[in-house]
Fold this protein.
Amino acid sequence: MLDKDRIRLMTKMSIYGKNHKDDFKIADYYRKDYVSLKTWITLIWVTIGYAILFVSFCIYSSDSLSADLTILKLFVLLIAAIAGYIVLLVIYGVCANSFYKRKHAVAKQNVKRYYRNLSRLEKMCKKEKNEQ
């Protein structure tokens, strides 16, 4: 007969294993590798999004830009666009880096707890076997 602690532990582990499959994948990476990969992916998507917004802005305001466009205004517009892009990349890079470090740490901690509970469950089963 299963005792209450063992049933509770098995249920807890089953629910965790079912709902947090990604934690095992995340915990398989080294922290630096995981954070670097996810930060680069974030920065690539930010670049794509910024390019889409910039092209959309240029198409939308092409009439007003071309009406009184000079070389100096074009140069200032491009410098502002590049500066905005760099600021956006830095902000997203820092935020993504800290977010994914935290996400990896939490996943690693949860997986460690899962394996600790698995070890406790194994000891309970051995103890029950020895008692029989």
